[in-house]
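Milestone 3.1: sequence recovery, worked example.
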């Protein structure tokens, strides 16, 4: 058994939850915050048998999009940089960041 921890953008969370429901994938949705952007994102915890991991990874990959986002340079860095450094910098956020963890036990009481 495995535990998947999938961090995705809020914009994709409803569509992904619907895909999970259609595919009978059980998941718990958490509201989380990215450490870098300090913006909200969504984390799914998904417990599943080993032979379903690839299918669920595929589902996540197909449903979650990567999107460009603009960040402004932190003030502390701007001081040491030239005038152009205060312009927003483009970064790519998600698709999805997925951890696959081995799971020793699964109990429901
Ligand atoms: P955030 O930490 O808010 O990061 C958002 C995006 O900012 C990242 O997208 C990446 O493009 C950029 N970024 C993050 N840290 C950076 C850094 N030190 N320098 C330059 N750019 C940086 P993603 O890589 O797609 O990550 C999306 C979200 O997934 C992250 O939101 C975080 O919540 C989570 N995440 C990503 N990698 C992780 C990891 N190794 N461990 C735990 N969570 C992770």
């Amino acid at each position: 058994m495995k535990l998947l921890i999938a961090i995705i953008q809020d914009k994709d969370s409803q569509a992904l939850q619907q895909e999970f429901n259609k595919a009978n994938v059980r998941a718990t949705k958490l509201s989380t915050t990215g450490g870098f952007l300090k913006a909200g994102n969504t984390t799914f915890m998904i417990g599943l048998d080993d032979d379903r991991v690839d299918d669920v990874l595929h589902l996540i990959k197909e449903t979650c999009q990567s999107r460009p986002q603009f960040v402004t340079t932190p003030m502390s860095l701007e001081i040491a940089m030239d005038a152009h450094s205060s312009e927003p910098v483009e970064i790519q956020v998600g698709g999805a960041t997925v951890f696959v963890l081995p799971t020793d036990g699964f109990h429901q009481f």
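DSSP finds three helices and six strands in the chain. Residues 7, 34-37, 39, 41, 91-94, 97 surround 2BA (CB under 6 Å).
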